[in-house]
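Final report, closing paragraph on structural work. Over the funding period we assembled a curated collection of sequence-structure pairs, and we close with a single example.
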Amino acid sequence: MSNVQPAVKLYDLLKRSRETISPSIDAEYREITVRLWGKGVIERGRAVGADLAGRRFVARAGQFITSRIDARNGAMGIVPDALDGALVTNDFPLFEVNTQHLDPSFLKWLCRTAPFIELCQRASEGTTNRVRLKGRSLSCA
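Its predicted structure, as stored:
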């Protein structure tokens, strides 16, 4: 009996999160940033809703997050419990991880590897230092 699992595209194991809110003017919110080279998902700071323009995405613990601009520099990881409910802009796509088929700790490790980061570099586009990961290519991030 073989324990070999069939190959599955990462894109098929991640589902884009669409949970958004319109920040209340007088409420305080935590914001997230993603450090380069797989060094973690951290709080960027706190902001009052009046200072936040437009809708924001709501991050949930255990989601995979990446930076569209810095995915090519390894800016991706798993949202920690402490940042559940924090906000991000659309430059930080969030994904639900299919934990039936993918262990988030494996994904956290995988996205720090050189071959994975190289895939994201190849999937990025732009001519300035603000190179963004292309839409469908988020299957690599």
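The first helix runs from residue 104 to 110. The chain has one domain: 10-140. We thank the funder for supporting this effort.
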